[in-house]
């Protein structure tokens, strides 16, 4: 998209979560955890149920919005409605968009419950050059999982430029919370693949590759993730009988 990035100015556009996000929508830097913090976190993780009865499904939808990602960002804007449609046949779904771009910019929206609103938010965001910030995405997902419950995380990207051990530590925390991360990789970068596969393994999620510009492949993967977020493993198993994307995910999940 051409022009300067548009920063939302009202809570109707992008709102901060009650916890874990600053008022300007930026995801805060992660702070070192004390031993007491870690003990409390582990205790809460063990006590939590990943799928509370009657709860709305909650999915963190994370995208790399660096410069090379513009074509895929536009494609995701179109395909995100399929996630809501798939979830609608199973129950309900709220989506929180998290994206990074430019110099040290990582932002998160509030929880969105319909595709038109999410499409409007995504349409205001343009891609900017910068390095990957996957660690911030994982930290934000962990904060939301503890604060309000998250059933799954979807990440769409093509590169990884961070310390893989640091990412794995954050992924392990999500694994304790039983929040699977579905890592959808565009292209064939071997460094990204190694990291994405390990993040998926540590969280009990799945890694899948899709070809650059392959809307049909990405659509299937997003539908499968939405099915899991709305209806859990049973819904994903049912969808796997008819779509290859769901079968690819369920085949890897623990």
- From the N-terminal CA to the C-terminal CA, the straight-line distance is 39 Å
**CATH structural fold name:** Rossmann fold
Helix count equals 8
Main sheet overview: 6 strands, mixed
Question: How does the overall form come out from the CA principal axes?
Answer: globular
Beta-strand level of the residues, as a percent range? 15-25%
- Could you state the CATH homologous superfamily? von Willebrand factor, type A domain
Helical content stands at 40-55%
What are the low-pLDDT stretches, counting only 5+ consecutive residues below 50?
A: 1-21, 45-53
What's the SSE pattern? HEHEEHHEHEHEHH
CATH first level: which class?
Answer: Alpha Beta
Query: What structural category arises from helix and sheet content?
Result: alpha/beta
Main sheet: strand order: 3-2-1-4-5-6
Task: Describe the 3D structure.
The protein has 254 residues and is of the alpha/beta class. 45% of the residues lie in helices and 17% in strands. It has a single domain (55-250), classed as Rossmann fold, CATH 3.40.50.410. A six-stranded mixed sheet has the order 3-2-1-4-5-6, sandwiched between helices. β5 (181-186), α6 (190-203) and β6 (206-210) form a beta-alpha-beta unit. The longest helix has 26 residues, at 215-240. The protein is globular. The model is unreliable at 1-21 and 45-53 (pLDDT under 50).
